[in-house]
Automatic annotation (TrEMBL):
This is Tr-type G domain-containing protein. Its main location: plastid. Transmembrane segments: none annotated. Belongs to the TRAFAC class translation factor GTPase superfamily. Classic translation factor GTPase family. EF-G/EF-2 subfamily. The keyword GTP-binding applies. GO terms for cellular component: chloroplast; mitochondrion. Residues 27-305 form the Tr-type G domain. Keywords: Elongation factor, GTP-binding, Nucleotide-binding, Protein biosynthesis. GO terms for biological process: mitochondrial translational elongation.
Amino acid sequence: KIYSAAAAAAAITSTSSRFLSTESGGKKHRNIGISAHIDSGKTTLTERILYYTGRINSIHDVRGKDGVGAKMDSMDLEREKGITIQSAATFCQWKDAHINIIDTPGHVDFTIEVERALRVLDGGILVLCGVSGVQSQSLTVDRQMKRYNVPRAAFVNKLDRQGSNPWKVIDDLRNQLKLNAAAVQIPIGLESEHEGIVDILEQKAIRFKGDRGEVLEEVMEIPDELKELVEEKREELISRLADVDDDIAELFLMEEEPTVQDLKDAIRRQTLTCSFVPVFMGSAFKNKGVQPLLDGVLDYLPEPHEKANFALDRSKGEQEVQVTASSDDPLLALAFKLEETPFGQLTYMRIYQGMLKKGNHITNVNDGKKIKLARIVRMHSDDMEEITEAGAGEVVAMFGIDCKSMDTFSDGDMNFAMSSMFVPEPVMSLAVKPANTKMQNNFSKAITKFTKEDPTLRVKVDSETKETVLSGMGELHLEVYIERMKREYEVECVTGQPKVNYKETINTKQPFDWLHKKQTGGSGQYAKVMGFIEPLSEAERLELGKSNEFDNRCTGTNIPPEYYTSCEKGMNDAMVEGSLVGSEVEGVRVVLQDGASHAVDSSDMAFRICMANAIRDTMKSANPSILEPVMAVEVEIPTDFQGSVVAGLNRRMGMIQSSDMNDDGSGLKILAEVPLANMFGYSTELRSMTQGKGEFSMEYLKHSPVMRDTQEELMKRYKEEMEAKAA
């Protein structure tokens, strides 16, 4: 039999009948995310899904010659670079089901977009390249899916490419991702001969005809050369299901043949519990395999009420409560993504239970603010469609709501909060400032907007260097935001590496005897201080709770007691700027033993200046050294790359503290201490060394002395800077 996409397009009727909630009229509902490694074909697959479901009338490719670009890549930057930067939402109709789809980025720098999409979705399609198989970001996406217990189907894409091998990909799924995966389809031909698929369950061949693969030709006869393979893969499928499903196991042990419906029911049951992953085949770019994948989404991925979601009851110490996914219950919705538009803030929201109706009031559980719903829209990439209401299980967007990402909303009666999502720590920083001071206002607006939109983008003004430092997930991540500032806010930015915050200390005990005398007519300035400075040990500093100590051991009134505090202030002044590179001084104990004063000329200021100059001068002869920040670095890599990664850390003057292998021996966690100054550019180096499979995080540990040659180089650079300023 032959049928086309026209039938699906004809089924699209008015808005009212098209967007019914999960429970109205028995209409099926799916919320799915499409996730994968960069360049596996996620956006291309979404484009084909939209075309076959009648949502768009023509297909445009990601880097197409027509220059239009894929529908879901709506940002100019996305179309230029040929990558997805922001997750984009859309919806479509397939047979009797309404499907919300979120297309997510594949690049590790934009991992938060995948994180928040998977947090609110009920099912996922893990797209894999038929040639490369499981790649680095596939591992990250798999970790994220497991974190939120997202049932998933896999789609082996690009089977038209040279070197494609779907069976190697399925082995990768089993060995690297530890998934119980089995094929439900077999490709008819590979590479240039790829023309369709065989459905293992229904034992039929499907070929894709027509200009855009919109006409499906179904034949109930399997090609002779594939019969043996189909039988082998069907037995493998039944065996894999029998391992996890009792009904199939019983039939398997009794040597009875399960029916098509038995197998479909078992696949659905085990996919929903994340115990099984059905694998589909095709080539999205060549328009093959997409419609059967959509059938698989309806057959095997969950309805909103079938995926368990939990809220935290704040009135009972954040006890977990399962949400009902019923439109008749009180409202519970989660704002999972914010976007600035010309019309104000657009808030993407997932409704877990209850209804959102235009004109109603909702309450932000986190701050108690009441908000009136002025406008509800359904997103189709960057296009919007106005609707008046939305029920449980829907993903919609709203204007006029001022909130943060991951705020929970109710209709006022409930004190429940949806649990938040995991936000990874930034790994790379960049000093940034506007090229022109006139742009400062727009620069501040852009920074405020971007940090509100993206929880992984952090900004801070360094209290010591006074630089604005942007921190993010990688070089591309920060580069995209700097480019967006230029395009959206017309702010040209000057960027550079942030200066490392060095510190100074002393290493030997040194006495001082300093006289400050100044006569300028009238009362002058007179003060004399005597004592010594000595280094403070790490243990003493921890015990004191401060980095320097002032110890007054004066007896008698050679220095009047009212000037003791001035002497301490003088010490603090001297600690602000050291003699080597002008950095803050730490680890010094100043002991004041004696001194002298003048009845007329001594004053607070005189003793303060005297003490500061005494310490500054004495520190030069107390064997001073420069301290640099050392980071605790945690690197996670596959075991194969251990040698090159350890060598790379050694090159960066890293000290390996420990190296632990995981249970199955496939991964390794290395803990090391590395100077921050040597960590710039490490994320790029690690990714290139490990084929993108390595990840690292770092946090401040301590300040340690630098090498002698580094100290001389830093002092020379500081001297040159001072001379340049003086000139």
